[in-house]
């Protein structure tokens, strides 16, 4: 009798494809021996954080680069190494990793850092989830930082999504302003937008001295190397010879994006497993690319209201049926009116549609550029999809309220 004979037959207990799928999950932090081609950037981050090892204030640092170029990986990896090195001299370094896309208000950022750092027995304070004003959360943060750590490293991912940059000024000047006396704080800000510092308020710009670092995209060879170092996520012999080079080539098409490469490889394995295939092949990789792009687009529009989806659908129809790529608001509006009627939606005003297009531009779903300058520029903007229309359409039609469009198309 085998070990699985008494298990519930409803489930599967073997995995013929993956040996350890977690190695391909986005939350997985690979060890230094699996990190490829980032020695120089790692050294620069280490230089900025170096004082923390002795309990002194690190230099603040902004890291820029396109998606999937290893910005958060290198920040987290070096921070962890700082923490363990400091520990050898009894220095406590803690870190808070915050995604400003999800938490963008001053109060929620301060609260989260305080909760991550705080040990109530040491600080004598608690940090409740709700019920305090921003000022009170700051007070508890200073208490927590002073009593529970020597150095706190705050990593702010997607820092350009911050609603108010005042939090940067307060965190960076906490020591100087005697908010904290026995501890210090270092900030690592991460962004895809290289011009982000230009948008900081003058107060923050002048008070936040920092180093800056740019991460360039990977080339296809580096992507191959990154994937090779995760090959052990699969059982021996499961990956066909062309799978890794093809995955790397597809991920390098727009820019060398390691996140996309790893996502495609993981999805290819999942598709193969679903089909009960014994090997992952080039065909699985191609299907996985489409799924990866659709999932990514889905993440971008997940929270969007149905009216916004109808507007995007209108832009998709225009894109599909024309050699043009960019369309003025007016044209999109005319198409939208027809789509809204077909869906039995209330028809929004042109001004509202313009606003929604601007929001989608902000979310990086579309790109909007004004034509000329001066007043009324909103109405004269031109918009284009940033994703392949067939993928956009597929994802939009996943929404059951938009599904009737599929039957008619
Ligand atoms: N040099 C590298 N070596 C090994 N794996 C890497 C490397 N760079 C990135 N990765 C992997 O690629 C994925 C994306 O990396 P990461 O999240 O650091 O990118 P990012 O630049 O912060 O992207 P985003 O702006 O989208 O957050 C992660 O799974 C990470 O482990």
From TrEMBL:
Keyword Cell division assigned: yes
HAMAP family: ORC1_type_DNA_replic_protein
InterPro entries referenced in this protein's UniProt entry, alphabetically: AAA+_ATPase, AAA_22, Cdc6_C, Cdc6_lid, ORC1/CDC6, Orc1/Cdc6_arc, P-loop_NTPase, WH-like_DNA-bd_sf
Protein name per Swiss-Prot or TrEMBL: ORC1-type DNA replication protein
CDD domains for this protein: Cdc6_C
Ranges where the AAA+ ATPase domain occurs: 57-219
MF annotations from Gene Ontology: ATP binding; ATP hydrolysis activity
